[in-house]
Amino acid sequence: MANKQTEISKDLPNKKLNVVREFEAPVADVWEAWTDADTLDQWWAPRPWKAQTKSMDFRDGGRWIYSMNGPQGERSWCRVDFNNIIAGNSFGAAVSFCDEDGNKDASFPEMNWVATFNAIGDDTKVEVAITFPTTADMEKIVGMGFSEGFTMAHGNLDELLAK
Prior knowledge:
Elements (H helix, E strand, L loop, with lengths): L6 E5 L4 E8 L3 H9 L1 H7 L6 E7 L6 E7 L5 E12 L3 E9 L12 E10 L2 E9 L3 H9 L2 H17 L1
Antiparallel strand pairs: 1-2, 2-8, 3-4, 4-5, 5-6, 6-7, 7-8
Helix pairs in contact: 1-2
């Protein structure tokens, strides 16, 4: 049985958040859930918010532009620039807040993500290392509810994978 707790720890000296989560599904299914726009839209946002992809090109040098849409009509745009993709195993990404055209919002820090996917028996362990320019930048994102939101989204993914 997978550890259904999302573990998020701070590595202050390295300005990094480490996220670890196991899912009760094979790597291929979890990889698809993290790399396919239609599937991401079904779980990525914490309820009652919804993710909506504007465009996605999952390849080295490709980009995902999506919005997080709130229940009162709020909309927040994000841009993910993919790099170092090893199919079925890992990918890197530079993640930024942006406008709907993908122009970066300089008032928020860019985050560098490295996500790895490993089989643990029939389950999948996902580890995400998120590095920030400064500790203050990391604290800004944490203060916006990152930990709670990402944990809730992982619960959405559990439900989706169980179908």
